[in-house]
Amino acid sequence: MGSLYPIFDLVGRIFMALLFIPAGAGKISGYAGTQGYMESMNVPGILLPLVIIVELGGGIAILLGWQTRIVAFLLAGFCLVAALLFHLQPDDQMQMILLTKNVAIAGGLLFLVANGAGAFSIDRWRQKS
């Protein structure tokens, strides 16, 4: 089983990246709508470019295993802030499910902070050179 750990690390990173890359890209194609939604939740729409960079850039970094611990830490914080700003609505069961989903994603990202990207990553390649 231990010989499969590098594969599990890679697949786990791919799955995490699949959350963030399409979300960031979708915000580009739906820029005005996303900006309007942010503003309806009292979050300044001017922050949208930063959100796109965090999601798209962070997702790509996780996928490649580049600066994984730092990026995973930042994305975990991003998930927690997003959960509190957009999903903390105790009277709405769906929003509370989304809140707990974001908390769970942050937990998975903290595993990357603790364990790193694994064997198939730019981080590991850079350690060897």
Radius of gyration, taken over Cα atoms and rounded to an integer in Å: 16 Å
Residue share in helix: over 70%
Which residues sit in consecutive blocks of at least 5 with pLDDT less than 50?
none
How do the helices and strands follow one another from N- to C-terminus? Answer: HHHHHH
Q: What's the average pLDDT? A: 97
Assembly type of the chains comes to single chain
The number of distinct β-strands equals: 0
**How far apart are the first and last residues' alpha carbons, in Å?**
28 Å
Structural class: mainly alpha
Q: What is the strand content?
A: under 5%
Largest sheet: none
Concise structural overview:
By secondary structure, the protein is mainly alpha-helical.
Main attributes?
129 residues; mainly alpha; globular
Structure description:
With 129 residues, the chain is mainly α. 79% of the residues lie in helices and 0% in strands. It is built from six helices and no strands. The two termini are 28 Å apart. The mean pLDDT is 97.
